[in-house]
Automatic annotation (TrEMBL):
<feature type="transmembrane region" description="Helical">
    <location>
        <begin position="20"/>
        <end position="36"/>
    </location>
</feature>
<dbReference type="GO" id="GO:0009506">
    <property type="term" value="C:plasmodesma"/>
</dbReference>
<dbReference type="GO" id="GO:0098542">
    <property type="term" value="P:defense response to other organism"/>
</dbReference>
<keyword id="KW-0472">Membrane</keyword>
<keyword id="KW-0812">Transmembrane</keyword>
<dbReference type="GO" id="GO:0005886">
    <property type="term" value="C:plasma membrane"/>
</dbReference>
<dbReference type="InterPro" id="IPR044839">
    <property type="entry name" value="NDR1-like"/>
</dbReference>
<keyword id="KW-1133">Transmembrane helix</keyword>
<protein>
    <recommendedName>
        <fullName>Late embryogenesis abundant protein LEA-2 subgroup domain-containing protein</fullName>
    </recommendedName>
</protein>
Amino acid sequence: MDPEQDRDGGGRSCCSCCLSFIFTAGLTSLFLWLSLRPDKPKCSIEYFYVPALDKSLNSRTNTTLNFMVRLANPNRDQGIYYDDVQVSLFNTNTTTNSSSLLANSTVRKFYQGHKKKAKKWGQALPFNNQTVLRAVLPNGSAVFRMDLKTQVRFKIMFWKTKRYGIEVGADVEVNGNGTKAHKKGIKMKKSDSSTSLRTYFPVCVLMNLLVFFAIR
Ligand SMILES: *[C@@H]1O[C@H](CO)[C@@H](O)[C@H](O)[C@H]1NC(C)=O
Ligand SMILES: *[C@@H]1O[C@H](CO)[C@@H](O)[C@H](O)[C@H]1NC(C)=O
Ligand SMILES: *[C@@H]1O[C@H](CO)[C@@H](O)[C@H](O)[C@H]1NC(C)=O
Ligand SMILES: *[C@@H]1O[C@H](CO)[C@@H](O)[C@H](O)[C@H]1NC(C)=O
Ligand SMILES: *[C@@H]1O[C@H](CO)[C@@H](O)[C@H](O)[C@H]1NC(C)=O
Ligand SMILES: *[C@@H]1O[C@H](CO)[C@@H](O)[C@H](O)[C@H]1NC(C)=O
Ligand SMILES: *[C@@H]1O[C@H](CO)[C@@H](O)[C@H](O)[C@H]1NC(C)=O
């Protein structure tokens, strides 16, 4: 018989067995978390067109805001379920620093596989068509702000995570042709209210490890 067990009795043995199980489970989940933790989707504005600001049309009646956003899943092992994506367009008044809501639009919810990219075309009707025309600056260009707001769940093998908030935005400059002034896509950056992906899980694991060493 194991002398250690002889001295301490069955209760101690069971307890240490239980503890090493907790410890192993903790390490395993830490490892799984490190290898499977998902990254949030990358969003960019690839196309933006306002016919009313297109001088070549000689007509200012079509004040729709037309856009295409690219949503990319950077993860190799996780799919992404997007809820409906709320698109909001603002007029950034550079002289007063204020921005007023011009229009809302929605991109329908969808699923995106590993490493996939989605191009989402959309059109937004302004609440007041005059605000679009007033957005033009003295130098002939106009600056709009576009915000995306949604929630995503990650699909990790067979289960779905809880919902994580995504809120990103970027300014887009429109030239005298009514289109995006710069050829390159505009990266949309995180706004303050996005929830962080990486808070809850490691805290549990750390607690587990701490408890283990404390009892030992
Ligand atoms: C602006 O909208 C109003 C009401 O929706 C419409 O009657 C008017 O023709 C529009 N004007 C332009 C320039 O599109
Ligand atoms: C306004 O312009 C957009 C983009 O070119 C086009 O899809 C839409 O049909 C136009 N709307 C009207 C009422 O002409
Ligand atoms: C606009 O905002 C920027 C940065 O927040 C600030 O530096 C600047 O002074 C503001 N301008 C006005 C006119 O409020
Ligand atoms: C526009 O969208 C924003 C964000 O989804 C929402 O908070 C706001 O109530 C909407 N406004 C209108 C007039 O629909
Ligand atoms: C910005 O605000 C100023 C002061 O209220 C106003 O005169 C100007 O027309 C605004 N510019 C735009 C682009 O809305
Ligand atoms: C026009 O003015 C805005 C605001 O000052 C600036 O951001 C933009 O780069 C200018 N556009 C051009 C083509 O000069
Ligand atoms: C509008 O488009 C034409 C032809 O594509 C180009 O030559 C011109 O420079 C553009 N205008 C502006 C303000 O970018």
